[in-house]
Amino acid sequence: MSASLSATARRLSAVTAVAAACMGAAALPASAAENHQSGRGDRARLEISDVQADAPGRDDRSNRSLNREWVEITNTSRRAVDLDGYTLSDEDGHTYTFDDFRLGGRDTVRVHTGVGRDTDTDVYQDRHNYIWDNDEDTATLYNDRGRYVDDESWGHNHRHGGGYGHHRDGSWYDNRGDHRR
To answer: Which of 7, 115, 132, 138 could bridge to 53 as Cys pair (CB 3.0-4.6 Å)?
Structure first.
């Protein structure tokens, strides 16, 4: 009879342990929701949010015209991201590497092609020639370990099709009259 009591005690212990585990698992989603609301569970996310591949006006290779060609990168999370070592490149292999730059939560940085003085909202590639092809190209962002983060294409390669580029508000621009390439 003592063997029977021992088996019953083991079964009761097992049932109690399972019940405790279930109660603990039910409490986890509430904790996760609290962490997310407080921002502790919010992971940094970066995206190429806008591209102006065709500088407005004449393409005269002036620094002013070069700086009107840009790519915007937005941090859609609440956490700041250290972009040191991140790269932005085009299909032809032109690459810009971020150096000692921190992008705040919900902030955007505009990467200009020409020469200029870097600020918290604008950085400059310090180039003297256009980078982004008006008719079609792809801007690709990689992290400091060379892993893909995001890209944006326009023209015939545009992943959404039908347009030659887009602005953040969703409107399209058409560069069929491009004379640079």
So the answer is: 132
Q: Average pLDDT, whole number, for the chain?
A: 77
Q: Among 111, 107, 81, 82, which Cα is nearest to 94's?
A: 111
Q: How far apart are CA 119 and CA 132, in angstroms?
A: 22
- Candidates 174, 148, 179; CA nearest to 163 is 174
Residue 124 in this model has a pLDDT that exceeds 70: yes
SS3 (DSSP) at 22: helix
> Which amino acid, 135?
D
Residue/partner pairs of 171-175 with CB below 8 Å, 24 or more apart: 173/54, 175/53, 175/54, 175/134, 175/135
Strands (E), 36-97: 46-52, 70-75, 81-82, 87-89, 95-97
Query: What does the alpha-carbon distance between residue 133 and residue 121 come to, in Å, rounded to a whole number?
Result: 23
- Read off the tokens for 61: 């290779």
CB proximity list for 43: less than 8 A, separation 6 or greater:
77, 79
Q: What is the pLDDT of residues 57-111, one digit of tens each?
A: 999 999 999 999 999 999 999 999 999 999 999 999 999 999 999 999 999 999 9
d(CA 23, CA 54): 59
